[in-house]
Amino acid sequence: MQRYFIKESQIKNNLITIDESDSHHIKNVMRMREGEHVIVCSLDEEENSKNYLCTISSLGKNVILNIQEELNENNELDFNVTIAHGLVKRDKQEEVVRRLVELGAYAYLPVIMQRSVIKIDASKRQFKNERFERIVKEASEQSERNRLMKLLDIVTVKELINSFDNYDLVLFASVASKNDLSLKEKMKVTSAKNILVIVGPEGGFSEKEIEIIEATSAQTMSFGKRVLRTETAPLYAMSVLAYEGEK
Amino acid sequence: MQRYFIKESQIKNNLITIDESDSHHIKNVMRMREGEHVIVCSLDEEENSKNYLCTISSLGKNVILNIQEELNENNELDFNVTIAHGLVKRDKQEEVVRRLVELGAYAYLPVIMQRSVIKIDASKRQFKNERFERIVKEASEQSERNRLMKLLDIVTVKELINSFDNYDLVLFASVASKNDLSLKEKMKVTSAKNILVIVGPEGGFSEKEIEIIEATSAQTMSFGKRVLRTETAPLYAMSVLAYEGEK
Fold first, then answer.
1. Which residues 63-102 of chain B have a CB within 8 Å of chain A?
2. Other CB atoms closer than 10 Å to residue A59's CB: what's the count?
3. A34, A167, A219, B231: which has the fewest Cβ within 10 Å?
4. pLDDT exceeds 60 at position B178
5. Mutation test of the interface with chain B: which of A91, A225, A228, A240, choosing the one with the most B Cβ atoms within 10 A?
6. Interface probe, candidates B92, B220, B225, chain A, greatest A C-beta count within 10 A
7. Distance of alpha carbon A105 from alpha carbon B159, whole angstroms
8. Are the beta carbons of A20 and A157 closer than 8 angstroms?
């Protein structure tokens, strides 16, 4: 069933006022009629969601929905996976962001790395913008997520390492994996609730980056024998983490 | 190290004559010099490969390489995974083909399905063309594969089902998976050497298609709780199969 993400503030007295963009989608793209059903994911300020089955009550400039019942639905993973990704070109970022939403990622964190083709002004750290937010919202609706993947501000490798304490498992892409513990065992040992996976940019990690990451608590994760492109590696990592978490 | 796929017939007396396209790549893209090294994967008529470490001997119109030694390298999976994919638009096919090569797939098999947006003339079954072959070759060289993923001719669902005997495990994407056995157990039980995974087109399988596939020996495979797009599902499947095979 078609679903829409809204803010909790759009709900009043069991009625939901849909914004103009989603109203356009309901009326002109989906061509829905009064009385038809949609699912609404309502996010509070902490981005916790409640899910409602709704009927379309009126099709004005702002569509009005009537809440029928709260749904007990959860398509999210039991743990949060943040993908830290070396800065890559915009079109690759868009594709990776879209697919990571589908695959269940919690957050996307762009990282300034030595071999990134993309160079940014050190003062420009905001990654989130209208276009990326729309991609996340659309992909979340289509893939039936219950929350929106976070788009975090761009960080340096140093800042990334300083944030490791926020995670109970930090994995980084390595061709020559130590492979002491399997991924499954690593997830179990930590009973990981917050996982960070670090993937390099087009040119891979620099030797210095590998050196300073290896000096931390971060653990290697095998990405298989083949060399994955920077836009494929995050999808592999997210697929196998979701698979291990859901099987 | 940069690698190139060649045909066995290009080797004579320990020397390899590179074709004009790859010669251009060596000279003008990689800007390599005489004496530098490349890896060459030589494919015989059955597409078995031998891998050689070579030095650049001369940089004429056709670059000549000198074989130094045969390499004992194998980045392939122990089993063959064929991805049968409902016909989708060309740009999506190209992306899926490229990523499946990186992830280690054995073959890509487009299938005419009821809900495919793309309709083809029943007589036009050849999928392989110059553009797709170039994508496979480039992705194979970049991802350090030892063989080229096969691009199979387009089939109908009926023809697909008739080919099930060629595989020892047939999996199809299901939202509501029976999940009697885990994927790992399924792979073990069959000690699968030839695996077929069937993924629907944009609109998913039709009810009739599900009905006739379920009446066969095909087994359901969970793709997680979220709804994956038709171009994401093959990547998820190939990632977790490679992961199960290599961990």
1. 74-76, 99, 102
2. 15
3. A34
4. no
5. A225
6. B225
7. 37
8. no
Q: Could you tell me the pTM of the whole model?
A: 0.92
To the nearest 10°, the Cα dihedral for B242, B244, B246, B247?
140
Interface touch A243/B247, C-beta < 8 Å: no
pLDDT reported for residue A180 = 60
CB contact under 8 A, A226 and B99: no
Contact B243 A243 (CB under 8 A): yes
Which residue is closest to B102 within chain A, CA to CA? A228
Longest CA span, chain B: 61
Length of chain B: 247
Instruction: Compare all CA atoms of chain B with the CA of A104 and give the residue at the minimum distance.
Output: B226
Mean pLDDT for B157-183 is: 82
Q: Which of B131, B66, B143, B69 is nearest to B105 (CA)?
A: B143
Q: And the tokens for B63?
A: 């670059």
Asked if the Cβ–Cβ distance from A102 to B145 is below 8 Å, we say no
The crossing angle, in degrees rounded to 10, of helices A233-246 and B233-246 is: 70
Three-class DSSP category at B244: helix
Which three-class secondary structure state does DSSP give residue A3? strand
Spell out which residues of chain A touch residue B144, defining contact as CB-CB under 8 Å: 225-227
Q: CA B177, CA A64: separation in Å to the nearest integer?
A: 36
Q: Each residue of A142-180: pLDDT tens digit?
A: 999 999 999 999 999 999 999 999 999 999 986 654 456
| A192, two tokens | 């990981």
For residues A9 and A20, what is the distance between their CA atoms, to the nearest angstrom?
A: 15
* Residue B184: pLDDT band with limits 50, 70, 90: confident
β partners of residue A41: A5, A51
DSSP state of B78: S
The minimal CB distance from A102 to the residues B144, B145, B226 is found for B226
**pLDDT tens for residues B67-98?**
999 999 899 999 999 999 999 999 999 999 99
| B87 and B160 Cβ atoms separated by less than 8 Å | no
CA separation for the pair A227, A207 (Å, rounded): 17
A202 touches B: beta carbon within 8 Å: no
